[in-house]
Each structure stands twice: as C-alpha cells, then as structure tokens.
Amino acid sequence: MGTCGKDEVLARLQDTMVFGLKGMAAYRYHADELGAHVKDIDDVTTKALYFGITNANFNFDDHISMLMEIGRAGTKCMQILGDAHHKAYGTPIPKQVTNNKAEGKCILVSGHNLTMLKKLLIATEGKGINVYTHSEMLPAHGYPELFKFTHLKGNIGGAWHDQKKLYEKWNGTIIMNTNCIQTPPKSSTYLDRFYGYSIPGVEGIKKIENDDFTKVIEQTLSLADAEGFNSDETLMTGHSFKTILTLAPQILDAVKSGKIKEFFVIAGCDAPGKDGEYFRELASRLPNTTVLLTSSCGKFRFNDIDFGVVPGTEIPRYLDLGQCNDSYGAVEIALALSDALDTPVNELPLNIQLMWMEQKAVIILLALFSLGIQNIKIGPKPAQFFNDDIINFLVEQFNISYTTNVDDDWGNHLK
C-alpha cells in the first residue's frame, strides 16, 4: 500500500493505462502526419494521464471505466488512421508479393510509417534504386498509390525480431521509421548503413531530417548490388476490411450453406522464441471450412502457408487485414456479420486468438474490451503487468483465457 493509498491492483491497472496510451500514441502520431483530426484522442490521453499518473483517483470501478474510455479512444484512433491511409493511398486490394528476393541497389524499409514510404518512393524514382519492405511494412504493397511505383519491389524477412540477423545479411541501406527498432550488437556491420526516420534511433544511427533522403540515396548507390536473396516465395496481403465487405453476399451464402463454418482471428504482435510456434500450428490445423483473418506482425508465423480458398467458393481462406492499426477491421467485419445474420457478436462462429508482446497489442485488447467483445484467448504468455486479481476480473467480465497447447485449447475446431 502506497502513502496515498494506492494498492497493487490499482498500480497494475495504471500500468495498463500507460501501455495502452503508448500504443495509441503511435497511431495518433501517424494520423496527425496525414492531417487527420486527433484532438479527441489527445483529450482522452490527457485525462488518462491526469487520472492515473498524478494519483488523483483510487477507486477500482473508476479505473476500469478509464481503461474502457482509453479502449474506445483506441478504436477511434485506429479508424481515423485507417481512413487517412485509405484517403491518401487508396483502399488496399489483394496483392501477391515476393519475399526474400532482391536485386540491384536496394533500400530496406521497416516500421509502420506509410507516409514516409511514399516520400521515399518519390525521392528514389528513376534513380536506379529498388525499395523493399520489412515486417509491418508488408501491407504497403496493397495500396494503389504505393504499388504504382514500380521500384517498390517486394518484402524481405519476417517479423520485427529477425532484424539483427537479417540486417547483417542485407548489404543495402536500411531505414527504420517507427518503433520495433533493436539496438545493433557491437559486432554488427550494418550500423553504418542504418538510418532512423523521425522518432526511431539508437547510438550511432544516421538520422533522416526534414524528409531529405539525399544521404541514404547516395550511400545506397555506392554499395554493392543485393546478394543472397533469391527466394521464389510469395506472400499475400491487401485484404482491407472494405475490400472484404464487397464479398459480403458470397460470404453470407457460404455461411448459410455450411461451406464456411467458422472464422478465426489470429493476430497481434509476435514475440521471439519457440512459444510462437503455437500460432503456426493452430493456423495450419484449421479445416478448410474456416476463414483466417490476421493483421500485425504475428502473421509472419504462418503467412507463408498457402491456405487456398473455401471449397466450392472463390473466397480466400487467408485474409491479411494489414498492419496492427488495421486490426479494427476484424471488428468491422464481425459487426457486419452480426447485423447480416441477426446474431450477437459474441455468439458468432468467430474465435479470437490475440498474440501480444508490446504496447500496441494492449491498446487493441482494450479496444476489443470497450466494444464488449468476449471469449478472447491470449498468448503466448500472460501480461506481466496483470496480477491474479486483474486476471480474475477479466475472466469474469470478458471470459478471457490464456493459451496452453493447441489441442487442449482448440481441439474441437481442428481438422
């Protein structure tokens, strides 16, 4: 018990607020770059900081209400950013993207910032440089105003945590434009080719200031052509919820006829380590009557699998909604299904498996809670900032559960 009367439960709830606000701040920053109105988001952030950080309130129910308000703001922020992306770059469409295949003089872009990528593509057009994406930049290939640049070639690597090994192998330049940056090891050879855009940075990194890409372009042209990336692998992306909803009549017919029996959302932030193999096993063992929706970097656990289409239809079984901020698209789809089938959302044949590692997954979870979404399974490990009292509350109110093993968790849903 603190001097002011704050116990461990309230302290942990305030930690959750901070993590959620950190995740929302990233989305808010990118929305602001695109000129979107974000004052409502800022107002909630200010209120939450005053509420939690200044020790102004010690009431449990008020803390839960504040978390739900943050969740609602998170939902709105993701919608604002998604709308801004679609307005600026067009509504994404499904695209097949090469993975781990590179040639020529190359720049690798990692992060989430589509605004920066567009500026880089304009700056490098006609200069003999190919641009590749890494991790959460993969969905960029689905946006018409980005893939129209023919030197946006493909994707390299997987989720954020492969960067130390990947960047060591990559002999072009690298730009990190948002969070998920890792400090290069002292033995690294890529720090001299490593650039930070706007916020991201580590000791020794080169900074891109005022959208001036001159130095990175000059260095890229001075380096050797890409070597060691010759894979024939491809990945699918670009399944915006707006694009998916154009298939609503076919999807509803498939549900009513039994061709689609379930929807699985397997999404979130991937954590390094073998625990993440759980999600690949789950995805690969879902029957062909199941449609899989994903987003965020967790998709790299299984997005190399060819899931094909639902038998008897042309509906893809694998739908990549986009970056982590596009996760709200799964809710839009669920709400549309709920309305069309006249069934409450929590009674739909919809299962949610959330992967989490960092603050953006926290704001996504709070957003789902604020919308009343229940029965979410979380993994690979419980959040360290929850204690037993908070977990028991979430189980009681939202029926959350944690992953154990695929058979015990999902046995009745597997092929």
TrEMBL record:
Transmembrane segments: none annotated. It holds the Pfam family Prismane. InterPro entries: HCP/CODH (IPR004137), Hydroxylam_reduct (IPR010048), Prismane-like_a/b-sand (IPR016099), Prismane-like_sf (IPR011254), Prismane_a-bundle (IPR016100). GO terms for biological process: response to hydrogen peroxide. Its EC number is 1.7.99.1. GO terms for cellular component: cytoplasm. It is an enzyme of class 1 (oxidoreductase). Keywords: Cytoplasm, Iron, Iron-sulfur, Metal-binding, Oxidoreductase. One of its GO terms (molecular function) is iron-sulfur cluster binding. The keyword Oxidoreductase applies. The keyword Iron applies. PANTHER family: HYDROXYLAMINE REDUCTASE. This is Hydroxylamine reductase. It comes from Thiospirochaeta perfilievii.
